[in-house]
Design brief:
Blueprint lengths: L6 E3 L8 E3 L4 E7 L2 E4 L8 E7 L3 E4 L2 E4 L12 E6 L2 E5 L2
Parallel strand pairs: 1-3, 2-4, 3-5, 4-6
Antiparallel strand pairs: 5-8, 6-7, 8-9
């Protein structure tokens, strides 16, 4: 089993699906399911999505349901990161 690795998905993630990674998560498609990144905290963990519409996002043990994700991040492409228990977004 690999540890401290990123997870890269080159398609859409359906509602109800769950992605879990020790490191970062990259989704080159629409992210509609649950994304849990940073299960092994090693610095700044991020979730990169072409189109973020997730049911749940977790980074380094901090969890947000879809209604807690800021509107300016939903349906956008870019990197989503968490610092001081809040979302940060950067276009990539």
């Amino acid at each position: 089993m690999l540890h401290k690795c990123d997870l890269i998905v080159t398609s859409h993630v359906s509602a109800g699906a769950e992605l879990i990674a020790d490191g970062n998560i990259h989704v080159y498609g629409m992210m509609r399911g649950r994304a849990l990144a940073g299960q092994v905290v090693t610095g700044k963990t991020q979730i990169f999505c072409t189109n973020l519409m997730a049911e749940l996002v977790s980074i380094a043990g901090e969890y947000w349901l879809s209604d807690q994700i800021p509107a300016e991040i939903l349906w956008q492409s870019g990197a989503t990161a968490v610092s001081r228990k809040r979302f940060d977004r950067s276009n990539r």
